[in-house]
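User: tokens in, sequence out, please.
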């Protein structure tokens, strides 16, 4: 089997605060393949964003204290700054919840996308010329090529009338169009991995569904690997191939999205799903039953869910919980819960599956 595009192994990221050391990511491991959408699902504070930022080495002021992040055979945790800059600017693109973080308010949307295209083209050419040992000549037509490509990218991201809209400024765009423009910028460098942290959370349901559908097209047409971070089970269910359930900075369960959401093996995942049934408001943040998330200060040497789990035994509080593989890539970090425990909610319906014309409100 070939190597995955991204392999995260035992990642640990910590922040030093006046309250003590925050163990934001506490030994997470997972992979993303080319042409695959992997979701990271978890409640607020479970370590999703820090995981994403650590992959791109944007964890500052935190520190990666252990583990490896291998992207296309390069370990990013030990890579030098120039390697990181090159990878971030071309092979890995990141998109966040708030498009205004990326867009420059005083430059037109078309110019910003064209600039991203031009930077990428120049870097590619520069690398070739460096290799050949010849100087770079400025190409007059480069700008108009980049502009043309920008319009193509806007069109691919379903921005209507891209020619006329390319001269508009970000404030003239709706939230949905701004996020599409950010995606066009992210794709200008032809990345092989897109990391999207809650990219549709601030958008209305219809726009959200359109953009998530586009993610699946990008996966299929460009063989793009996508890491999609969300607190919304509906978003994960309708978009992802595999899901990683994160809690207290640790992976509780991972596997094919259909298996994990219909046959959850970890008591935490079960609690998350039953809670999402009872509170079926679209877009509502996931909460796991009673109690509150663990305090990440001080770190967890054992299962972070132990204090809220009906199956917990002293073993669950003693040391790290080993991960067991159940079948076809379905893994669970729990040694105590019976695997055939009844589904927690008698009226739980199967969640919508990626290809089933999913309606996210139905779980
Ligand atoms: N700069 C920081 N300094 C100290 N602690 C931090 C910092 N950034 C994140 N943390 C802590 O790390 C933990 C994980 O945070 P993270 O932002 O990854 O959560 P999340 O799962 O993305 O939550 P949300 O759904 O709210 O975005 C939290 O306890 C958070 O307080
Ligand atoms: Ni976050």
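Assistant: Sequence out:
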């Amino acid at each position: 089997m070939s190597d995955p595009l991204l392999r995260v192994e035992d990642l640990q990221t910590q922040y030093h605060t006046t309250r003590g050391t925050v163990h934001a990511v506490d030994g997470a491991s997972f992979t993303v393949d080319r042409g695959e959408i992997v979701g990271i699902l978890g409640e607020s504070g479970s370590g999703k964003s820090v995981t994403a930022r650590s992959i791109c080495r944007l964890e500052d002021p935190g520190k990666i204290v252990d583990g490896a992040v291998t992207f296309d055979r390069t370990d990013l945790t030990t890579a030098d700054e120039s390697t990181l800059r090159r990878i971030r600017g071309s092979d890995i693109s990141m998109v966040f919840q708030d498009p205004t973080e990326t867009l420059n308010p005083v430059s037109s949307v078309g110019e910003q996308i064209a600039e991203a295209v031009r930077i990428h083209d120049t870097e590619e050419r520069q690398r070739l010329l460096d290799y050949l040992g010849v100087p770079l000549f400025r190409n007059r037509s480069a700008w108009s090529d980049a502009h043309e490509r920008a319009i193509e990218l806007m069109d691919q991201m379903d921005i209507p009338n891209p020619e006329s809209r390319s001269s508009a400024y970000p404030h003239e765009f709706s939230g949905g169009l701004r996020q599409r423009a950010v995606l066009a910028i992210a794709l200008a460098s032809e990345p092989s991995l897109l990391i999207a942290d809650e990219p549709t959370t601030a958008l209305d349901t219809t726009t959200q569904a359109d953009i998530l559908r586009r993610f699946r097209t990008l996966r299929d047409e460009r063989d793009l690997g996508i890491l999609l971070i969300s607190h919304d089970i509906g978003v994960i269910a309708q978009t992802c191939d595999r899901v990683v359930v994160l809690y207290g900075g640790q992976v509780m369960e991972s596997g094919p999205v259909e298996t994990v959401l219909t046959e959850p093996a970890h008591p935490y995942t079960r609690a998350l799903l039953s809670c999402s049934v009872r509170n079926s408001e679209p877009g509502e943040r996931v909460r796991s039953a009673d109690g509150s998330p663990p305090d990440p200060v001080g770190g967890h040497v054992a299962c972070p869910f132990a204090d809220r789990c009906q199956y917990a035994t002293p073993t669950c509080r003693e040391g790290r919980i080993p991960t067991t593989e159940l079948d076809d890539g379905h893994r669970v970090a729990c040694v105590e819960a019976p695997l055939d425990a009844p589904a927690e909610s008698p009226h739980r319906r199967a969640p919508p599956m990626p290809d089933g014309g999913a309606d996210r409100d139905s779980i």
